[in-house]
């Protein structure tokens, strides 16, 4: 039940293993990270069903959150305006997340992006999520990473 996905287990007791979510979601934490639930493929590796990814640009364990947003004083709303929310034909399944060098998270697959209070902000099949902390259109990348000199593998 680790909410961040940092701790994962393999059951040895014969009980059913964790199942993938029926709906892929990305919850935007107020002044914090992106909490994603899906069958995750991160940087071409299967990575379980839960992950908490840095969006402040300060984590020393990118693309994952390590709590650095607290020390950095990162401030960003968890309640961005509602955008394109047309229904998706498929709501679950594999979600491919590729951190771009010195740039955003390139995300491919069905994803419902939700505010901290659970409102659906956007539904998408492909998007680029800001991980540098500088976008004026969070949670989406607007190209500000280049101006900000964001550096990350
Ligand atoms: S990664 Fe932040 S604006 Fe592109």
Automatic annotation (TrEMBL):
Key words of the record = 2Fe-2S, Iron, Iron-sulfur, Metal-binding
Q: Which domain of life is it from?
A: Bacteria
Alphabetized Pfam families for the sequence: zf-CDGSH
Region called Disordered, residue ranges:
1-25
Q: Coiled coil where?
A: none
The name on file for this protein is CDGSH iron-sulfur domain-containing protein
- Check the record and name the SMART domains matching this protein: ZnF_CDGSH (SM00704)
What range(s) does the Iron-binding zinc finger CDGSH type domain occupy? 39-75, 118-151
């Amino acid at each position: 039940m680790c909410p961040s996905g940092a701790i994962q287990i393999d059951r040895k007791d014969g009980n059913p293993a964790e199942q993938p979510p029926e709906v892929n979601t990305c919850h935007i934490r107020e002044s914090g990270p992106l909490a994603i639930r899906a069958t995750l493929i991160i940087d071409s590796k299967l990575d379980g069903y839960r992950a908490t990814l840095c969006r402040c640009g300060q984590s020393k364990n990118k693309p994952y959150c390590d709590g650095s947003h607290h020390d950095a004083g990162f401030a960003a709303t968890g309640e961005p305006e509602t955008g394109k929310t047309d229904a998706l034909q498929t709501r679950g399944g594999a979600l491919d997340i590729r951190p771009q060098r010195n740039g955003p998270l390139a995300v491919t697959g069905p994803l419902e992006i939700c505010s901290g209070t659970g409102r659906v902000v956007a539904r998408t099949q492909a998007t680029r999520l800001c991980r540098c902390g500088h976008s004026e259109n969070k949670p989406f990348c607007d190209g500000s990473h280049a101006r900000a000199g964001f550096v990350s593998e």
